[in-house]
Amino acid sequence: MDGPFDAMDTRDVDYVLGQIAKRLSSRFTGVFGPETVERYVFESYMYLHRTVRLQAHLPALTENFATERLTALAQVEGSIDKPVPEVLFLCAYNAGRSQLAAALADRYAQGRVHVRCAGSHPADGLDQNVFEALGEWGIDINRAYPKPLTPDVLGASDVIVTMGCGDACPVLAGKRYLDWDIPDPAGRDLPFVRTVRDDIDARVRALVDDLTLTMG
After folding, report:
1. Which of 134, 149, 181, 200 has the highest count of CB atoms within 10 angstroms of its CB?
2. Contact 164/92 with Cβ under 8 angstroms?
């Protein structure tokens, strides 16, 4: 796609989203009907359209986000199994702490835990120093983007780790919650972000060890 997604007229957007819905309908055959898939695709687009900075990336991000949400919904409904524990990292903007935690958990879990992250008020992009701090450890998060918290993803999670989203982070019965008191790295310099990274790193290592021993 040559130009920004938001420069397209409504018919073009509908066509692109319709093509995404067709692909995902095929992927989720026997799990969800085409109407449910289409609704999730269009809804996911609307969620991201409000916040994503690089609108030209919206088609790919919409497909990714809709896939995550449909997978989570299928897990909640028992249509597909959870092969590994599901952990969700939450912060206010999904631009710093929760992204750091998700990237580090992915590294240490090596497929033994499935990791998601979201924000109660997602930003339009990740903090640059978060990219830098993780890049120093050889972790590439160039494909990461802030995502809103949705009921399907929340419902599919076994463990929910909150970091500074306060009352905006909903509480569901039967879920294991952890609240990590970690300062917000937004707008801070790289040395400060490194200290946040190191704090989260120690906590994530312990959590992954715990999950793989007790739930894996």
Report:
1. 200
2. yes
